[in-house]
Amino acid sequence: MGTWDNQQIAAVSLGLALVVFFAGTTAAIAAGASPPTPLWAAGGALSGGLLGLLLPGPVPNAVRNAAITAKTEDLTARATAVRAGTRATPAPAPDPEIEAAARSISWTTVAALGVVFVLLLILSIFLAGGAIVPPADFGVGSIQNLTKTVIAMAAAAGTGMIGLLVPSPAHG
Q1: Is the pLDDT of residue 168 over 70?
Q2: Whole-angstrom Cα distance, residue 171 to residue 59?
Q3: Per-residue pLDDT reduced to its tens digit, 94-149
Q4: Is residue 11 in some structural domain?
Q5: Position 91 in a domain
Q6: 139 belongs to a structural domain
Q7: Whether the Cβ atoms of residue 49 and residue 159 lie closer than 8 Å to each other
Q8: Are 90 and 109 in a shared domain?
Q9: What domain range is 19 assigned to?
Q10: 64 and 50: one domain?
Q11: Does pLDDT of 69 surpass 80?
Q12: Which of 9, 69, 84, 169 keeps 20 to 30 A from 53, CA to CA?
């Protein structure tokens, strides 16, 4: 068995922690209790961190577009050679750096995730602080569950954004 790098260890650890979160939340609900807000926030943070770690990080749009163009041109050349029957030897493997850049996300996506995080954070502060008062028939339990959900989504968006911005251990 090969050695694991830091990113694989972090991904497995976050995945196992997420499994523990789901088990704990399920057990609490099965016992008739309402899981506390910090538990939901931790679950949201774990899922956002795992997603941010597993997605390729952002690169400048010019680099991403150039990589997509290079990948498209390479695939077109390979397809043309196969159709013409001129490819006698297997094609060389695609350049991993071009593949990674072509699969990366844009900075616009990171900025949008940051805006979502800030808006959800503000909304959760208003909900938790009582600045937003629902109608009387809405129920106290419903606003508490809504607050838990918004806080968990804010935690997921925030840690997802951090996971996208942190450079991969392999690239320093």
Answers
A1: no
A2: 13
A3: 777 777 777 788 888 889 989 999 999 999 888 888 787 777 777 767 777 788 88
A4: yes
A5: yes
A6: yes
A7: yes
A8: no
A9: 6-58+105-171
A10: no
A11: yes
A12: 69
For residues 12 and 30, what is the distance between their CA atoms, to the nearest angstrom? 27
Tokens read off for 118: 């800030």
Cβ 98 vs Cβ 133: under 8 Å: no
Tell me if 1 is assigned to some domain: no
Judge if 42 and 11 occupy the same domain.
Answer: yes
**What DSSP string describes the chain?**
-PPP-HHHHHHHHHHHHHHHHHHHHHHHHHTTPPPPHHHHHHHHHHHHHHHHHHSPPP--HHHHHHHHHHHHHHHHHHHHHHHHT---SPPPPPPHHHHHHHHPPPHHHHHHHHHHHHHHHHHHHHHHHT-S---GGG-HHHHHHHHHHHHHHHHHHHHHHHHHHSPPGGG-
Chain-centroid distance, C-alpha 38: 20
Considering the domain architecture, whether residues 65 and 142 belong to the same structural domain is answered as: no
The predicted pLDDT at position 119 comes to: 94
